[in-house]
Amino acid sequence: MNFDRVSRFAFAAALSLGFVSLAGLTSNRAARADDTKPYVIENGRVDKHVFNGYRRYGDNCLRCHGPNATGSSYAPDLTDSLKHMTKEQVEETIINGRMDVNTANQNVMPAFGTNPDVVENLDDIYAYLKARSDGALGRGRPKQIGEDDD
Question: CATH topology for 5-138?
Answer without folding.
Answer: Cytochrome Bc1 Complex; Chain D, domain 2 (1.10.760)
